[in-house]
Write a structure and sequence with these properties.
InterPro entries: SusD-like_N (IPR033985), SusD_RagB_dom (IPR012944), TPR-like_helical_dom_sf (IPR011990)
Strand content: 5-15%
Radius of gyration: 23 Å
Keywords: Cell outer membrane, Membrane, Signal
Structural class: mainly alpha
Distance between the termini: 72 Å
Order of helices and strands: HHHEHHHHHHEHEHHEEEHHHHHH
Shape: globular
CATH topology of the domain at 30-199 and 420-450: Serine Threonine Protein Phosphatase 5, Tetratricopeptide repeat
Number of helices: 18
Protein name: RagB/SusD family nutrient uptake outer membrane protein
Strand order of the largest sheet: 1-3
Helix content: 40-55%
CATH architecture of the domain at 30-199 and 420-450: Alpha Horseshoe
Largest sheet: 2 strands, antiparallel
Family: Belongs to the SusD family.
CATH class of the domain at 30-199 and 420-450: Mainly Alpha
Domain RagB/SusD: 324-418
Length: 450
């Protein structure tokens, strides 16, 4: 009998259903399954090939705000020199990571429909997943789509648009061609509208809220040059209390609406790649960003550390190395947060959209909030073009190393003006990874001239 009990117990242990993964043919059946699936969707966004390092860094390398000084010359180094080719491994890894994140969101959205537990917050769960999916497609269009002149133009190129999960090899996994930019934009707007309608308000956390979804919609409309819409959505985001007088800081930004959180066991790679020994020191500030700061700008010592500096953050001592940044520096714990959406972006979106639609008073008022907070005098600009020039500078300095500057250059069609050595305007779009083109026999078409 003892032997029988032992064999039975062993058999039971051997056949335990794994709890850290769920077969796609089983799906989500409980609210706990869906909650775990939502965490998985956020986890995909944290990937080191995505927002855990690569995606914002690639954008800042090609914009020149980050300078490659390390050993990854065939991946990050080539991107920083604006000589990226379709076989660049990092470009392929980031493309794959974004589609992995889309796949997790798609699966959660579909499977959550099957859960009928009254205690399951179905609409808010789907709202978060759809906001994440919208962000992912915004980023795909941001790097690989549009035209060399920017976004929102006739004939803009899109990316493969997958809105349903792939659960089995077969029709679901067959290759599909690229949708148009307009079709992808319509899907982004639909997802963000759903999120805005179904998410609670809130700010400063590690989850998407209505406020974050509104800010993302404003960001997207600004990129697409729909200035009236950008203004409408940005003005719906509630102000952060005491924002105008709050300190300019790095990843502990008091104006954060949504951040990705990392921990010592779920680490961010930013400080590891920015700082020297015991880290890699793969990146330094770009050669022109320090000089772009006006005299007295409080953001300069945050963006560019000029001398070794001892600081204390949350009770922990750190030594900031010269030639690096205060945005990411927690080399021992690697738990620097990443700012996904900040209220400063909302303020500058209102300012720019107002200037573009003729409301120069609002534009100046909002711009001066940012300037005053940075220790600068009110702007002297009085015309729409002058105000927009100042607004774009403030965006560059305010969001240094947060991955936004390249998309500002692209959407304003100023890549070749700001970076005159970039004479090949077709490179304003990243190349589609070689693997995607070759394995689909060209069904996924390469961007022109690559």
């Amino acid at each position: 009998m003892s032997l029988g009990l032992t064999v039975g117990a062993c058999d039971k242990l051997v056949n335990v259903e794994p709890q850290n993964s769920i077969s796609s043919d089983k799906g989500f059946t409980t609210k706990e399954d869906a909650a775990a699936g939502l965490l998985g969707a956020y986890d995909a966004t944290q990937s080191s090939d995505y927002y855990g390092l690569a995606f914002p860094t690639m954008a800042d390398l090609i914009s020149g705000d980050v300078r490659h000084v390390g050993t990854f010359v065939t991946t990050y180094g080539v991107i920083g020199a604006n000589q990226t080719l379709p076989d660049n491994i990092q470009v392929g890894n980031t493309w794959n990571s974004i589609y992995l994140a889309i796949g997790r969101a798609n699966y959660l959205i579909k499977e959550s429909e099957k859960i009928n537990d009254p205690a399951f917050p179905k609409l808010t769960t789907q709202g978060e997943a759809r906001a994440l999916r919208a962000l992912h497609y915004m980023n795909l269009i941001g790097l690989w789509g549009g035209t060399p002149q920017g976004y929102g133009y006739a004939g803009g190129l899109g990316v493969p648009l997958r809105l349903l999960p792939t659960t089995a090899i077969g029709p679901e996994t067959e290759a599909i061609g690229r949708a148009s930019e307009a079709d992808v934009a319509a899907a982004i707007r639909e997802d963000l509208d759903f999120a805005i309608a179904n998410l609670p308000t809130g700010a400063g956390g590690n989850r998407v809220t209505k406020n974050a979804a509104l800010a993302l919609r404003a960001r997207f409309e600004l990129r697409e040059r729909k200035y009236a819409d950008a203004l409408k959505f940005a003005q719906q985001v509630p102000a952060i209390p005491n924002f105008a007088t709050s300190a300019n800081t790095g990843t502990t930004a008091p104006d954060a609406i949504w951040q990705l959180f990392f921990s010592n066991t779920d680490q961010s790679q930013y400080a590891f790649y920015w700082y020297p020994s015991p880290s890699r020191n793969e990146f330094d500030p770009g050669s022109s960003i320090a000089a772009a700061h006006p005299a007295g700008d409080k953001r300069l010592p945050i963006n560019v550390v000029s001398a070794s500096t001892a600081v204390t953050v949350a009770g922990s001592p750190y030594t900031l190395a010269a030639g690096t940044t205060q945005k990411y520096y927690r080399t021992s714990t690697r738990d620097d947060r990443f700012n996904m959406v900040r209220y400063a972006e909302v303020v500058l979106t209102i300012a720019e959209a107002a200037a573009q639609t003729g409301d120069l008073i609002t534009a100046k008022t909002q711009l001066d909030i940012i300037r005053t907070r940075a220790g600068l005098a009110p702007t002297t600009a009085i015309t729409a073009p002058a105000l927009i020039t100042d607004i774009l500078l403030q965006r560059r300095l305010e969001f240094a190393y947060e991955g936004l500057y390249w998309f500002d250059l692209r959407r304003t069609n100023t890549v070749q003006t700001a970076l005159p050595s970039y004479t090949q305007s077709f490179r304003n779009l990243f190349p589609i990874p070689f693997r995607e083109v070759s394995l689909t026999n060209g069904l996924i078409a390469q961007n022109p001239l690559y």
